[in-house]
Amino acid sequence: MDITNLKFLFYGYSAAWIIITAFVLLLVSRGRRIDRELARLRALVENKERS
Amino acid sequence: MREKATYLLGALGALVMISNLHTIFVGLPDDALQGMIFRIIFIHVPADLVADLFFTIALVTSVLFLARKNFIYDSITVACIEVATMLILVNLVTGSIWGRNQWGVWWTWDLRLTTQLMKFVLYMSYLVVRPAIAEPTQKATMSAIIAIFAYADVPLVWMAIRLPNVRTNHPSPVLGNGKMAAVYNAPFGMGMLALLLIGSALVLLRLHQETSQREIDSLRRELHAA
Predict the structure, then answer these.
(1) Interacting residues of B142 by C-beta distance below 8 A, sequence separation 6+
(2) Contacting residues of B for A30, CB less than 8 Å apart
(3) What gap in Å lies between CA B9 and CA B196, rounded to an integer?
(4) Selection from B44, B55, B85, B47 nearest residue B171 by Cα
């Protein structure tokens, strides 16, 4: 078994999964921020309509 | 309902990917020339093909936005481009790692590699320019124009290893011409399916966020106007 080959194969798949996971985490964190902001603005509009 | 479908697609994609990884690493023989590093093809090529599919959808929706001025097309465009650009990064990084092992260099200014890097830079410029424009119609129009312009690079990448009289280090095409051993077809197809499912789930997730962002912008305008 060629260890150099195996090392680079490991680097390749690790890099791919790190990029995909980082992108998913970025999307999830952005989604949470958007949901919080939306809830805050909806509450503000509701309060303004009541008053 | 849409949220459940998104998570279902993502989970299905992850399952297909994990089961395919088992086949790739345990079930396949090493390549006679490259040894075990050839297995990188099962993520390197599908990442580009799935990205190109999303770029093509983005091209169609950009044209539709310019023709109909419906913002849903703009939302689909940005969702597809963001996910596809991430997949191009996967393609570039895995290709570079393969190149370091097989060619002895991380990068070379070969026609195929350069046009692929251009693709990444062009679509990154779309993602960088977009938030800089505040007015929604202007933002969507400018974004659609950049997306159409950037797509010009997609066929260039495809042609880079097919044109006659072009010297390239990149391996010649192996798909659809019988140059790839039949035993690799199934894991390659499964790799495509896995990334397509995961990519589609991410596009749907991003599309949902873009719709919410539009609602946020509209609520902000409503509050400022009051």
Answers:
(1) B129, B130, B133
(2) 209
(3) 9
(4) B44
Helix B136-151 to helix B111-129 angle, to the nearest 10 degrees? 180
Please list the pLDDT of chain B residue by residue as tens digits (226 residues).
778 889 999 999 999 999 999 999 988 888 888 888 999 999 999 999 999 999 999 999 999 999 999 999 999 999 999 999 999 999 999 999 999 999 999 999 999 999 999 999 999 999 999 999 988 899 999 999 999 999 999 999 999 888 887 777 788 776 766 677 788 889 999 999 999 999 999 999 999 999 999 999 999 988 888 6
- Looking at beta carbons, which residues of chain B come within 8 Å of A9? 36-37, 39-40
Tell me the CATH number of domain B2-219, given options 1.25.40, 1.20.120, 1.10.20, 3.30.420.
1.20.120
Report the half-sphere exposure of B222 (CA within 13 A, side-chain side).
15
Closest of B95, B97, B93, B57 to residue B75, by C-alpha: B57
Decide if B58 contacts B84 (C-beta within 8 A): yes
For B90, the token pair is: 């996967």
What is the number of CB-based contacts under 8 A between chain A and chain B?
A: 82
Residue pair B88/B123 in contact by the 8 Å Cβ criterion: yes
Helix (H, G, I), strand (E, B) or coil at B35: strand
Residue from A6, A18, A34, A42 whose CB has the most chain B CBs within 10 Å, to mutate: A34
| Whole-prediction pTM | 0.93
